[in-house]
Amino acid sequence: MSKAHYAVIGHPIGHTMSPFIHKRLFELAGRDADYVKADIPPQELGERYGSFLSGLDGYNITIPHKQGIIPLLDSLDDKAAMYGSVNTVSNLGGKAVGYTTDGDGFIKALEAADIKLDGRIMILGCGGAARTMAYEIALRGKPFEFAVRRESVGKAGLLCLDITRKLPETQVSFGLIDQIIGTVDVLINATPVGMYPNVNDQPIHNCAIGRCGAVFDAVYNPFETALVKRAKANGSKAAGGMSMLVWQAVAAHEIWDGSTYDKEEIDRLCTDAAEEMIRIF
């Protein structure tokens, strides 16, 4: 079997963890494949699609191309069509099919941390990451709410309308992030607050964190954010975004070649990826 070729595209692509994670997954599966990163500005996406992307066996997509790639593809799977977002493409059989695995990574990360989507569920933020997580929660029939900054209220309202239009039974609301009252069973940070290099920042105050039963932070750099550390210090279950990043990569490999992995292998990969991240940043 000839060597397979894969990539991740984005702009700027920077110190992405994708090559490290995907190369390890190919090794674990015993596949002969390479995986590179490609910085492609938005205005060059169409040109590079014909000269580079269409010749790959598959590829991953990050900001800002998750929507821009869609018109270039032959088809979308149902979830990618509902989300209006693609992060994985398979070129098998000469057909470019778009998928989204971000949601799968989110759910798998919660399972790995033994965080159950029950009770009062709150998502901080209303951007792309929040949208993905919200749909996964809505698909499971769970009520939830967004907590956003005052300048994002309009955007949050539109996102709630979009979710209820596509999934009419969903119970979703929104409020201000600086006015969180009462206890929260599952708090999900979908904002970039606390990301490297601003590692001491938290999206909400300590008093609000203290009223959270479990915390999931989508930020993966640093491996443990200030939010995760505070939640753990309070005795709450808490997990960061590295697990989500690795599990969404696993889902891409399931699409590309049907590879399967043991949980122990993925746990080890999460640890190794965290160490690699420290080395390169």
Helical coverage, percent range: 25-40%
- What is the CATH class designation of the largest domain? Alpha Beta
> What is the architecture of the largest domain at the second tier of CATH?
3-Layer(aba) Sandwich
CATH superfamily of the largest domain: Leucine Dehydrogenase, chain A, domain 1
Architecture overview:
The protein has 281 residues and is of the alpha/beta class. Helices cover 38% and strands 20% of the residues. The chain contains ten helices and twelve strands. The chain has helices at 18-29, 45-51, 78-83, 102-112, 128-139, 153-166, 206-209, 226-233, 242-257, 263-280; strands at 4-10, 33-39, 58-61, 75-76, 88-90, 97-99, 121-124, 144-148, 172-176, 184-189, 212-217, 237-239. Strands 2-1-3-5-6-4 form a six-stranded mixed beta sheet. A six-stranded parallel beta sheet has the order 9-8-7-10-11-12, with helices on both faces. The chain starts with a strand and ends with a helix. Helix 8 links the parallel strand 11 (212-217) and strand 12 (237-239). It folds into two domains: 4-101 and 243-280, Rossmann fold (3-Layer(aba) Sandwich); 114-239, NAD(P)-binding Rossmann-like Domain (Rossmann fold, 3-Layer(aba) Sandwich), CATH 3.40.50.720.
